[in-house]
Automatic annotation (TrEMBL):
SUPFAM superfamilies: Homeodomain-like (SSF46689). The keyword Transcription applies. Residues 2-62 form the HTH tetR-type domain. PANTHER family: HTH-TYPE TRANSCRIPTIONAL REGULATOR BETI, HTH-TYPE TRANSCRIPTIONAL REGULATOR RUTR. This is AcrR family transcriptional regulator. Keywords: DNA-binding, Transcription, Transcription regulation. GO terms for molecular function: DNA-binding transcription factor activity; transcription cis-regulatory region binding. Gene3D superfamilies: Tetracycline Repressor, domain 2. It comes from Neomicrococcus lactis. The keyword Cell wall biogenesis/degradation does not apply. Residues 25-44 bind DNA.
Amino acid sequence: MNTSETPHLRPALELLERQGFHATSVDELAAALGMSRSTFFRRYGTKEAVVFSDQEAIVAMAQQLILQVDPSATLGERLTVVRDVVLQIFERFTADRESAAIRYRLVREVEELKDRELVSTHRFERIFRTFLDTSKRDHDAAARATSVGFAAAVVAIHNDHFRRWLRDFSDDHRGELATAVDAVLARFMLATDPYVPGASGTGTDANKLYSAEEVLEMVRKALS
């Protein structure tokens, strides 16, 4: 599935909103998509899958980008990769404002779609968390806390800015998202290296060795 999928889906999304999610039959959806009933079930399976079809493509994109990263990459390098992927995810989610707006309204109205959206959010978190967790490789227990915290933080920040974008479709949200993610990234980067120089390179914080407890506190503060 590629980026052209969303425009192809728009007639189906418009039909679901116009008639109601539960009132629309699979046959009607298949007709709106220009395919037979059997092709619909083979390609989508459910009405919920139609609504979130483009999200599946975005999940696949995120996984593919992460798979291209050198397995020996450090935790700090991986944090930066996730930062870049989050921004690309936002670009994909906002590529078709009409379909995004319809989907948002459908999700707000239909309980099972809310559940499906929550599952999608957890999938992004899990992908990032698994990619970031170098604790076993590096024998560093604090790295796991960093992976869990950063994955949760950037997904929450992305979703917040996406919801704000849905209210006004302003291009300003792209820059604001990048600024917010970069701010969190800067705080988490402190947790990737136990030797963190002070701002001036001198004084009591210069080359300070942070304990695992202090690293965990950095994670908690970044999420607060």
